[in-house]
Amino acid sequence: MEGRPAVTEHEVTEQFGQADIAAVDGGWLLRLSGEISTEMRPRLDRVLEELGVERLPVDVDLGAVTFIDSSGIGFLARLGIGNQAEVRVLNATGLTRDLLTLSGLERVLTIATA
Amino acid sequence: MFDSLLNASHLAAPHELPGLIAAHAVKLGARDAVVYLVDLQQTVLVPFHGSATQTEHQHEALSVDSTLAGRCFQTTEVLIQRLGHDAAGVMVWIPVLNGTERLGALCVTVDQHPTVLLELRLRRLAAVAAELMMTKTLYGDTIVQTRRQVPMSLAAEIQWALLPPLTFACSDVIIAGAMEPAYTVAGDSIDYAVDPGCARVAVFDAMGHGLDSALLASLTVAAYRHARRGGKPLVDTALDIDSTVHAQHKGAAFTTGVLAELDTASGLLRWLSAGHPQPLLLRRGARARALLVQPSLPFGLEAGLGADRAFAVGTERLEPGDRVVFYSDGITEARAPDGSFFGVERLVDFLNRQSDDDVPPPEAVRRLMRALMVHQQGHLSDDATLLMVEWRSHREHVLLPEPAGGGAVSAV
């Protein structure tokens, strides 16, 4: 570790992808953007903790996601399984939508049609 | 005739096999016998010298795609090659097959075009050589090392140790599989078992990269075999795998997969998907289609649903000659430098073309993996795995050489 320049976690996650939580009417809006892959895992784990405190519906907007891998699928599955209220995925298109479907995520969350 | 070879083999170390085989060939009237073993990627045939001692002639590795030795390997036919102008005799290339799994080719030199009797004896020598290669592999590293062209990652070391032989055939089914990138594969795996009345197959993709991924795949395959060998039916096998992965990783890691079982008498296929690409059905004269079933969450996540967890089972009645292709997303998502995916359409087109040309599954799968590497210009960013099952095509004999005495083809 010695001699390595200090890199904040924010910088690291921003390079690959981003997760922003906003409060909306009676629930949460989680906006994911960029590349959702292994490098995002620490950030996504914290998102799960933050959203788990209150049992409110969550909308996950994937409109700005450019790539999603198994880390993202695992995150969405855990969110869908763990959340007591409805979890909806918004703006999933093309390959991302296909991946969500074949991953069996419709069993634990709603994939909203555009 | 072969007693002395078999007797000597009891006390032979793996690296002594080349010497034994060459000595026995001499007794048959053939000289310079060399067993070439195919590398893990099935691109080159590598001479197996065994010991470190240099032979009189230093043999080179031969390309599978562009040499006579390679043609012998591809077509599993005995081939005859004339020597150069000033040399007397011919070289005979004989496929070395473990069952129907192509291990490589045996090359010998004889004074003239072999008689039917000599050809039969040389084929038998190749058959015994194949058996010896298989039974001696585990006692030393020379055979394994010969088949590797570059250093292997630790993850891939784990993965290759898990794999069953990648080709199998009997009167009911032909099974052919492949896995790339061979030397750095981490999370993909395939497995199968052919038993009375039933062939069971599975393809897995453990999440993540490197060693973690390989360890997860190893756990998954062990859980699969444990349930299967314990006599568990399809869904219970899936539940066992799911519970095992969940117990170890608490939802933080998972494996996607498809499990299937084929009733080899009736052709009834049953399968389930844990978050994995659905298998494809290729039928002559029909459009290829995905075999769809309601997917469950990946193994290790579905268990998080508690009492609600379930694995739906799809059923399809196969017709004789049907091929079912199980694959991981690394096949269809393999990308060319311009960003284009290999895709399902290209996969289907390629395999249908091979079938139209009567290329049997093991060679079709080998060529597919080469095409995939070409598409990505040699660099695979993700594991790519494929397993093809062909039911009752009655093509299994194509995987063996034509009968002697008319089968041997003169060339060059």
Question: What does this entry show, briefly?
Answer:
The complex is a heterodimer of chains A (114) and B (412). Chain A is an alpha/beta fold and 114 residues long.
Residue runs with pLDDT of under 50 for 5 or more positions of chain B = none
Distance between the termini of chain B: 31 Å
Q: Report the order of strands and helices of chain A.
A: HEEHEHEHE
Structural class of chain B: alpha+beta
SS content category of chain A: alpha/beta
The major beta sheet of chain B can be summarized as: 7 strands, mixed
How many β strands of chain A by DSSP? 5
CATH architecture identity of chain A: 2-Layer Sandwich
The protein's oligomeric status is heterodimer
Arithmetic mean of pLDDT of chain A = 85
Explain how this protein is built.
- The complex is a heterodimer of chains A (114) and B (412).
- In chain A, 38% of the residues lie in helices and 31% in strands.
- Chain A is an alpha/beta fold.
- Chain A has one domain (20-111): Transcription Regulator spoIIAA (2-Layer Sandwich).
- In chain A, strands 1-2-3-4-5 form a five-stranded mixed beta sheet.
- Chain A is globular.
- Chain A starts with 8 loop residues before the first helix and ends with a strand.
- By secondary structure, chain B is of the alpha+beta class.
- Chain B has helices spanning 3-9, 17-28, 68-75, 116-136, 142-146, 154-162, 210-229, 234-249, 329-332, 343-356, 361-375, and strands spanning 31-38, 44-48, 62-63, 79-82, 90-98, 101-110, 167-169, 173-180, 188-195, 198-206, 255-263, 268-274, 280-282, 289-290, 314-317, 323-327, 384-391, 409-411.
- In chain B, strand 13 and strand 14 (289-290) form a beta hairpin.
- In chain B, helix 2 packs antiparallel against helix 4 (116-136).
- The chains are: A alpha/beta (114), B alpha+beta (412).
- Chain A binds chain B through residues 38, 70-71, 73-74, 77-78, 81-82, 101-105, 107-108, and chain B through 207-209, 251-254, 256, 273-278, 294-298, 301-302, 304-305, 308.
